[in-house]
Amino acid sequence: MKRSIGARSLAYPTPAWLVGTYDMFGKANAMTAAWGGICCSDPPCISVSLRKATYSYANIMEKEAFTISIPSEDYVKETDYFGIESGKNVDKFEKMGLTAVKSDLVYAPYVEEFPIVLECKLIHSFELGLHTQFIGEIVDIKAEESVLDEKGNPDIKKIRPIIYSPERNYYGLGKLLGKAFSIGIEK
Predict the structure, then answer these.
(1) 119 Cβ partners below 8 Å, 6+ apart?
(2) pLDDT digits (tens, 9 = 90+) for 77-115
(3) For 5-37, how does the pLDDT look when each residue is reduced to its tens digit (9 = 90+)?
(4) 47 φ/ψ angles, rounded to the nearest 5 degrees
(5) Edge to edge, what strands does the sheet with 163-165 contain?
(6) Is residue 182 part of a domain?
(7) Rounded to whole angstroms, how far apart are CA atoms 116 and 148?
(8) In a domain, 166, yes or no
(9) What CATH number is attached to the domain comprising 48?
């Protein structure tokens, strides 16, 4: 029997991403975000929800662009820090020893050291309450050669992305359970 635990912002898993933006002075900034995911396949789009109070919110509204840098487990401390400190107060890239790279397709920076980067142009924003959902059309994905498989596709086992849980914990990936769109056919 299931017990009601109430309506909360709780889903499993959620990502641990860095959302990259430039401020009005051209200063690179990034923040950790967990409320997001793919929201359309054609055109390829991603959503991320941010509070109005964040520095990144204003940057996205002004520049109409952002990046999503997907960290590997090797960068869990840096990923956490980028969600603690505000870019208004400190250069987070410098403090954490990471490299901000200007996208050549959208006006936003990404994290050079992270294995996967999505470059996005803002196509919609929706006020939802405390958060605003930003929908970005993915104009390009950049991936380190080391995380690609023999067919040139990203390999999740090589990327080793960080997963965030609503209990405020970070996790790595678990074991492979089965092949999508085929395991369900097997009896």
Answers:
(1) 67, 103, 105, 106, 108, 110, 138, 139, 140, 141, 142
(2) 999 999 998 888 899 999 999 999 999 999 999 999 999
(3) 788 877 888 999 999 999 999 999 999 999 999
(4) -115, 150
(5) 14-15, 163-165, 169-171
(6) no
(7) 10
(8) yes
(9) 2.30.110.10
The answer to whether residues 68 and 117 touch, using CB atoms and an 8 Å cutoff, is yes
Q: What domain count does the chain have?
A: 1
* Tokens describing residue 62: 């002004």
d(CA 120, CA 107): 9
The answer to the question of residue 43 being in a domain is yes
156 belongs to a structural domain:
yes
Q: How far apart (Å, rounded) are the C-alpha atoms in residues 52 and 55?
A: 8
The domain in which residue 158 lies consists of 14-171
